[in-house]
Amino acid sequence: MQRYFTITQLTQEFDITTRTLRFYEAQGLVSPTRRGRQRLYTPGDRTRIKLILRGKRLGFSLNEIREMIEMYASAPGETGQLRLLLDKIEARREELLEKQRDIELTLLELDEVEAGARTRISELGAGAASEDA
């Protein structure tokens, strides 16, 4: 197992920018050691980066991700972290389902407006044709 990872290795592995990685460091989410100007990340930092990116893909905020990561290191540990994760998943799922319902309603409303506009165009076209005759 690799003892340290460089910023270049991690940015390439996770397809992120060095700026993103430095931002996570500034936010206290990862803590690389320094060798001169070079940042060296531990396997634990690598795992945190993976968790951060997964959390962001799922729509969690950095504060929510931090809360879950920090809980792992303190009581109640992994069990508490997993319970918190389940709570966050449930809340996120409900938020997405609400957005889905809103989108479906908006699409129905667009369909109605579109149908009305097409009907009116047909009426105007028929009226214009009779005016030309």
TrEMBL record:
Q: Which UniProt keywords apply?
A: DNA-binding
Please indicate which superkingdom the organism of origin belongs to: Bacteria
- Keyword DNA-binding annotated: yes
One GO MF annotation is: DNA binding
User: InterPro entries annotated for this entry?
Assistant: DNA-bd_dom_put_sf (IPR009061), MerR-type_HTH_dom (IPR000551), MerR_fam (IPR047057)
The HTH merR-type domain sits at: 4-71
Q: Mind telling me which SMART domains this protein's record contains?
A: HTH_MERR
UniProt KW DNA-binding keyword: yes
The protein in question is named: MerR family DNA-binding transcriptional regulator
* Organism of derivation: Roseibium porphyridii
